[in-house]
Amino acid sequence: MNEDTPRSSLWSRFVKKWRAVGGGSLTLSVAIHLGILLFAGAIVVSTQMIQEQVDFLPGGGSQQGAAASAEMRHKVQQKKRSQLNKVMPMKKIVTTNMNSEISLPEAPLDLLDVPDMSSLLGGGSLGSGGFGKAGAGGGFGTGLGRGGMGGVTFKPIMMFGMELKDARKIAVVMDVSRSMTRYLPIVAKELDKVAFGSPLVLYFGCGLQKPPRDMDDKVRKAQGDEFARFWQHWQGKASLRMTAEERKKLVYDPNTPMPLEAIYAQMVKRPNTYFIDFNGITYTSPALMCKEVMEADTIYWFADFQDRVDEAHMEEVFKKLKSRKQKLYIHASIRGRSFEQVRDKLVLPLGGEVIETKAE
User: Fold this and answer.
1) pLDDT band (50, 70, 90) for residue 330
2) I want to staple 62 with a disulfide (CB 3.0 to 4.6 A). Which of 55, 151, 157, 275 is the partner?
């Protein structure tokens, strides 16, 4: 008992002094803070234990990585397509030279929808320091092309060195009376040089008088026995004074040599080449107003303008071409007796001109 008493008094004095300096409040505060720290630590530890692992590697080995890569590729492709639609509008390019080389502007590399390396190698991906994909690509190529759009061109149309103003689609009506046929291959070559495959309508003569009601003004393809019959007789020695009934009896004879055979073969091979059977030399208007030339905004008429014209009928032709918004250009091998009438009553009022250059 005597040994415990000093210890008890010593502890009592310590407690009194501890309380005197505020030790009780300090102990309570430390206990509270320690409890808070223990509670927070327990929450953090439990959260880290149950948190799902996120795979940031593109195309990694987890389902999350595959889904993230697929979503990212989809967004990138959508962005490329929207940029292409905005900054790279489609443009038509037409060349008038069959052997032209066209250099197209290069698209920015980041707009090209090229496959990534993983798709080319059958899977996997290439990494670049863990910050994304690394890749490289290149390309090469050359080409030669030829095409036509039935006479459509987006360059100025030049016939024998003269520009046909505002012309985008041209059709040609050609006088193939016997004195004029020698110009046919020259005109056809020039036409195909500026607008390959444009309509070419052949008519024997260049007069402009009102056709009879029963006239055969059908426009036919320059092919087959019908064209062979037309060419054999009317480029040959058939009489221009034959009646309509006599002309109907004419047939093609394959055993008879074809006059101007090289020109005939050229016309047979050429696309969009037509003819109207011989009806006399003064009824050219069906050729000028036929549906085969209807889509052209410019009609080019090559003739000698020696045959008779009628002003009343020219007025009908003018109204028809005017309603179609077509211009008429004429090119005369010589200035025949009807040249000035055709020029003043048709060509100039329709906004066309006379081509003065020599056809050669």
Assistant:
1) very high
2) 55
The structural domains of the chain, ordered by start, are: 158-356 (3.40.50)
Q: Is 301 helix (H, G, I), strand (E, B) or coil?
A: strand
Cβ atoms of 323 and 351 within 8 Å: the answer is: no
Angstrom distances, CA of residue 45 to CA of 40, 84, 158, 269: 9, 50, 86, 89
> DSSP assignment, residue 152?
B
**In contact, 295 and 197? CB cutoff 8 Å:** no
Residues 6+ apart with CB under 8 A from 145: 102
143 has pLDDT over 70:
no
**Inter-residue contact 308 to 341 (CB < 8 Å):** no
Q: What is the dihedral of CA 266, 272, 278, 280, to 10 degrees?
A: -110
The answer to whether residue 77 scores a pLDDT higher than 90 is no
What stretches of 235-310 show up as alpha helix (H) in DSSP? 244-248, 261-269, 285-289
Percent of the chain with pLDDT over 70: 69
